[in-house]
Amino acid sequence: MGAFDFMLRNWTEVLELTLQHVWLVAVAMLLAVLIGVPLGIVVTRRPLLRRWTLGAANVLQTVPSLALFGFLIPVPFLGGIGARTAILALTLYALLPILRNTYAGITGVDPAVVEAARGMGMTNAQVLRQVELPLSIGVVLAGIRVATVTSVGVATIAAAIGAGGLGTFIFRGVAMVNDQVILAGAIPAAVLAVLADLLLGWAERRLTPR
Question: CB 34: neighbour CB atoms within 10 A?
Answer without folding.
Answer: 12
